């Protein structure tokens, strides 16, 4: 069996514009052949074509007739031919295998190889054994030309983009109208396969209509152009990738960042040098609302290339910081631990909270409320003096120490202790231990009306300077207070 075949050297299923390609043509004959020449041709071209059914008037039949019209266009980038064997009118080659080397340099400005619905860009090498008075031997080798797109050579791709669209939507016969606003921002508009497209979004929905979801899509659009018999256009859109975000309720707003990754299993040809096939990409955002309202849409053109942008960030490094209320100025006189305030409600003469808000400059802080937190006292000093209990045992009432300022309430009304309850409710003191305010030696005289301890910077005082010695004295004192009003 006789045949001819093209072999390329160091061909990895792709080549680039401006590259030198080299190879050899193999001719295999089962017997001696009479030839005129062994040729090799290099060709690159683009074409578009489709048919369109049109109604035309036939003057012969004088009727309107439907006819399929072929629309087409063609563009050639290079065409070259080399004679590998030239034998004049004819020559003979013996049976067997014969190899003939060749080389060719591709032009620099070429579009990428492409196959579309209504057109294509093709490159090929064709080897021909020209035989006189017989059919030729031919073999076609298709070249896959990849034309890189350097995003750094295209101006404007580094610039961030901020866009905003809005519309007014009515409900209840336009009695309640509100605005729906959608803002979208991109850090750049040039990307390569495998990169993520970060989309900063903000929706302000001041309408009575809920936003069902927000949808982002990256779409490619192919435009095919014909010139014969007239100029016509056809478009072919394809979805590359998409994502969805949850909706926003009526009279609400939301800010977030979405990410779309450019797929690597998709073809992104460079058709800049082709005038009859154009390709473009865009990011389409759609704010989808309920029927019968129309969706709110926004689009940003993108460029997808093969060489990424350098020296520019194509993603949002972090979300914008949330604005917080400023912290109050620090005051060294106030302890930073949280303490409930003491208040007196109505005619009650008893304290309602477990701990008073007593602020003592330079004094020790209150014991921590959490049992796992270590106490603020030194390990060698207990919070209460061991030789002096914090309050008398037995039925003795707690003596009135220095008066306590109760949220500005400072009168001379005595506060008798309840005879049936201990002076410390729930086992916790109502105020700081006296032992932490005065030396133990000053606490020996519980019967005195006043203590001889020196006053600290802030002195705690009860509303009464006297404490009843017994329950009866307390009752009498209470009656006197009631008479006094």
UniProtKB/TrEMBL annotation:
Domain of life: Eukaryota
Gene Ontology BP annotations: protein transport
Residue spans of biased composition, Basic and acidic residues class: 470-485
Keywords per UniProt: Sensory transduction
Residues covered by the Arrestin C-terminal-like domain: 176-309
Coiled coil regions, renumbered to chain: none
Similarity section: Belongs to the arrestin family.
This protein's name: Arrestin C-terminal-like domain-containing protein
Source organism per UniProt: Ignelater luminosus (Cucubano)
Lineage, uppermost ranks: Eukaryota, Metazoa, Ecdysozoa, Arthropoda, Hexapoda
């Amino acid at each position: 069996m006789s045949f001819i075949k093209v072999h390329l050297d160091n061909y990895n299923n792709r080549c680039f514009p401006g590259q030198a390609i080299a190879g050899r043509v193999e001719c295999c004959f089962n017997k001696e052949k009479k030839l005129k020449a062994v040729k090799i041709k290099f060709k690159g071209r683009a074409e578009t074509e489709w048919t369109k059914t049109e109604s035309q008037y036939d003057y012969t039949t004088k009727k309107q007739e439907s006819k399929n019209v072929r629309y087409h266009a063609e563009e050639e980038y290079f065409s070259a031919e080399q004679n590998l064997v030239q034998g004049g009118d004819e020559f003979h080659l013996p049976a067997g295998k014969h190899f003939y080397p060749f080389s060719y340099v591709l032009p620099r400005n070429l579009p990428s190889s492409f196959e579309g619905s209504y057109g294509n860009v093709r490159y090929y090498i064709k080897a021909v054994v020209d035989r006189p008075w017989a059919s030729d031997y031919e073999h076609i080798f298709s070249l896959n030309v990849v034309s890189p797109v350097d995003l750094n050579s295209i101006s404007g791709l580094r610039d961030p983009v901020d866009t905003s669209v809005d519309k007014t939507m009515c409900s209840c016969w336009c009695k309640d109208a509100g605005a729906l606003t959608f803002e979208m921002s991109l850090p750049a508009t040039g990307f390569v396969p495998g990169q993520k497209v970060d989309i900063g979004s903000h929706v302000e929905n001041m309408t009575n209509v809920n936003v069902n979801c927000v949808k982002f899509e990256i779409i490619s659009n192919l435009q095919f152009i014909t010139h014969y018999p007239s100029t016509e256009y056809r478009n072919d859109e394809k979805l590359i990738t998409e994502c969805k975000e949850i909706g926003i309720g009526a009279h609400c707003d939301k800010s977030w960042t979405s990410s779309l990754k450019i797929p690597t299993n998709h073809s992104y040809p460079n058709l800049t040098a082709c005038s009859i096939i154009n390709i473009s990409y865009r990011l389409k955002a759609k704010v989808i609302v309920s029927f019968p309202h129309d969706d709110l849409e926004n689009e940003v053109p993108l460029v997808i290339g093969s060489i990424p942008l350098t020296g520019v960030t194509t993603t949002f490094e972090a979300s914008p910081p949330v604005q917080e209320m400023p912290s109050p100025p620090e005051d060294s006189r106030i302890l930073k631990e949280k303490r409930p305030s003491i208040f007196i409600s109505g005619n009650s003469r008893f304290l309602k909270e477990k701990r008073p808000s007593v602020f003592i400059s330079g004094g020790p802080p209150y014991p921590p409320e959490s049992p796992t937190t270590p106490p603020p006292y030194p390990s060698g000093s207990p919070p209460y003096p061991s030789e002096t209990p914090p309050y008398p045992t037995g039925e003795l009432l707690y003596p009135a120490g220095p008066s306590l300022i109760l949220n500005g309430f400072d009168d001379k009304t005595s506060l008798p202790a309840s005879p049936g309850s201990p002076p410390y409710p729930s086992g916790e003191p109502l105020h700081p231990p006296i032992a932490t305010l005065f030396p133990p030696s000053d606490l020996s005289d519980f019967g005195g009306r006043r203590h001889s301890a020196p006053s600290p910077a802030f002195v705690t005082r009860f509303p009464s300077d006297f404490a009843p010695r017994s329950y009866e004295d307390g009752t009498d004192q209470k009656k006197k207070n009631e008479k006094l009003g």
